[in-house]
Amino acid sequence: MIALAAASPNTTQGAANRMSPVFLFLLAIGLGLAGWLAGRAKARAFSRDKDAPRIVSRPGYHAWYVAIWVAVPLALFAVFWSILSPILVDQWVPATPAGQSLPTFGFQRQSMLAEARAVAYGQAAGVFNPDAAALVEPFREASRFYTLVGFGFALALAVILGLWAFTRVRPAFTARVKVERAVMGVLLLASLVAILTTFGILASLVFETIRFFGMVSPVDFLFGLSWNPDPMSNPAAPQGDRYGAIPLFWGTIFIGAIIAMIVAIPLGMMSAIYLTQYASSRWRKIIKPALEILAGVPTVVYGYFAALTVAPAIRDAAQAVGIQNASSESALAAGLVMGVMIIPFVSSMADDSIAAVPGSMRDGSLAMGATKSETIKKVLIPAALPGIVGGVMLAVSRAIGETMIVVMAASTAANLTANPLEAMTTVTVQIVALLTGEGSFDHPATLSAFALGFVLFMVTLLLNFIALRVVKRFREAYE
Amino acid sequence: MTVIHDMDDKAEPKMRASDVSVFYGDKKAIDDVSIDIPTKFVTAFIGPSGCGKSTFLRTLNRMNDTIPSARVEGQIELDGEDIYSSGMDVVQLRARVGMVFQKPNPFPKSIYENIAYGPKIHGLAESKGELDEIVERSLQRAGLWNEVKDRLGESGTALSGGQQQRLCIARAIAVDPEVILMDEPASALDPIATAKIEELIDDLAGRYAIVIVTHSMQQAARVSQRTAFFHLGKMVEYGPTDQIFTNPLEERTKDYITGRYG
Ligand SMILES: Nc1ncnc2c1ncn2[C@@H]1O[C@H](COP(=O)(O)OP(=O)(O)OP(=O)(O)O)[C@@H](O)[C@H]1O
Ligand SMILES: [Mg+2]
């Protein structure tokens, strides 16, 4: 076993290679600390010196100024180097004498290099292909070399920038402004993370969606009436006929935007009206947090409730009144429970909107001799309506994106029907079903999940966008 | 302790408050006030800030009911009927005793709907035609008709501050009240809009009993026939406006009117 002979040398060394970014980070912290101390010492000397001009920024800011100039470029370099150095190593190895003996192309060449790399970095104990063993040492050598180069660069960078920053520490230097600008930059980056992630998600969705639309026409997908993506169940049907998403869109709208809202809008509104207009402040203090706790219950819990309690109850009730074909995975059960889940959301949006209507409006109505309920119906709710509508749209967007309840309580059968007692499926249920199956990632059945996700993403984005604008307009009207 | 001048006119009282005290929680904001409010006259309430003018004004149409901590003692009569008795319907009371607030507060509805609001809830119009008539008549009386007759469908909140306040006055008179309470109705307006409101109050005076709270001595002198001076929750002096301004009997009244007092 020649192959295993290569395994004996130290794996710690391989580990050290991959540790080099970590070392660079530690170096950044260490040198940054040194810069901090040096900057502070120099600035303090100025502030103690009676003859020197008055120091503009406090010594702490000078310290941070130097430390930032030392540590931040160094840390960025560490990130950069951890990406670049493996590439350089991979280019070095084939150029060595041992590398000359590699097959010129193809799979074999790649696999030999991969094996040698794995051994050199300590990821594998030995090579299977004896020829690869000769490449282990060049890999180690290259990685040692580039680690050294990296340290050298890093050190030089830190020292040069640190010295430059250090020389700028003077009494008149406005270190505080510079440091605050750096802090602001960090905050800006943090806020960009969420936005960039959204774009990243969108980009990957778009990419896979385009691949899907290469196989199935968008028209068939968006307007087709039959959804049946399982390749086994109906192999004879042509592609386009199997990916008609209308039944899914309909199921999603029927459960999330119709049944759920029929429950959530009236109950949410009534609870908001009660809380803002009738409840004593003691009741309000009890009920409002209780509703907010309800909003924090994990949706999977609602899912149990829908699947184990509500769905059978609805089926039994339907059978009791003589409807025989009621499904135990009815759209009604999922929609009802989803509606209950959304109540706190609608109620708190409506509550905020009604509370935002100025008290003078209410007084004006009461002073006209309107009763409390007339005032609510004819002045407060119309005045709060834009805010309430915006809130309902946000609620709809949440409901149609909701996954757990429908996965547990709705069915996977794509029926196109308006009978709430029948089984129905939603976009999110199908995405889960398609991606948790065994399908390969280039089969249209799997890719269709991305197309569905893309549609869902766009619709909720649009709903949120419009809703937030409506709510904003409404708030502005009363400011 | 309150000085009440001889009123030699033949004004008949519309509202009569007897020994009225108002509390916010334990705090007494109005202390034992008795006053007759005559019909077809303008009565002005003056006094330093925080003396209880608004509080007392709000007892006259029971708007204090909307403040949970407020409590009213004593008796207030409208045409001899106790407005705090259980037999009095507060909805009816407020239809008879209208109110205009310091800050114009039109509803976020059309100009037409703002005026039609009261007549609709009180069922004053049998038909659309009748309602149109009420709207036009009220806007006419409030001196706003010519400015808005071509845009009755526009939002009331789109009017200028002065127009909004006249809209609120038109809204109040649309239900044909007997008394109109105005709490500093012109304090948020410029001199020209103020002059319009004062003119309007003059025009309305012959028809309703009007009570106006104001911080402007000139305004009180210009528009009112009766003036009551409040101080620290008490009514100090009450009498014909010209007498209060030219010949006050109380030292505190004199100090306030001549500006020696906050
Ligand atoms: N809702 C309330 N709760 C508790 N106290 C109140 C309330 N409204 C008014 N007060 C108190 O009652 C007293 C009289 O207030 P009021 O508003 O009647 O004065 P005002 O004469 O109208 O003053 P201004 O000229 O500033 O309008 C004040 O001390 C005030 O703090
Ligand atoms: Mg006041």
Uncertain segments of chain A of ≥5 residues (pLDDT<50)? 1-16
Uncertain stretches of 5 or more adjacent residues of chain B: none
Overall pLDDT metric of chain B:
91
Largest sheet of chain A: none
| Interface with most residues | A-B, 19 and 27 residues
Question: Tally of extended strands of chain B?
Answer: 11
Strand arrangement across the biggest beta sheet of chain B: 1-11-10-4-9-8-7
Assembly category = heterodimer
Please tell me the overall pLDDT of chain A: 85
The amount of helix of chain B comes to 25-40%
Radius of gyration of chain B: 18 Å
Strand-residue proportion of chain B: 25-35%
What's the story with the biggest beta sheet of chain B? 7 strands, mixed
SSE topology string of chain B: EEEEHEEHEHHHHEHEHEEHH
Q: What is the first-to-last residue Cα distance of chain A? A: 82 Å
Order of helices and strands of chain A: HHHHHHHHHHHHHHHHHH
Number of strands of chain A: 0
Q: What labels describe this entry?
A:
heterodimer, A: 479 residues, mainly alpha, 78% helix, B: 262 residues, alpha/beta, 4-stranded antiparallel β-sheet, 10 helices, 11 strands, globular, binds adenosine-5'-triphosphate, binds magnesium ion
Please describe the topology of this protein.
The complex is a heterodimer of chains A (479) and B (262).
Chain A: H1 2-5, H2 11-48, H3 59-95, H4 97-100, H5 106-120, H6 130-168, H7 175-215, H8 218-223, H9 239-242, H10 246-278, H11 281-295, H12 299-320, H13 331-356, H14 359-367, H15 372-401, H16 404-409, H17 427-436, H18 444-477
Chain B: E1 3-4, E2 13-24, E3 27-38, E4 42-46, H1 53-59, E5 70-78, E6 81-82, H2 90-96, E7 97-100, H3 111-121, H4 128-141, H5 145-148, H6 161-173, E8 179-183, H7 191-205, E9 209-213, H8 217-223, E10 226-231, E11 234-240, H9 241-246, H10 251-257
Helix pairs in contact in B: 3-4, 3-6, 4-6, 6-7
The complex binds adenosine-5'-triphosphate (ATP) and magnesium ion (MG).
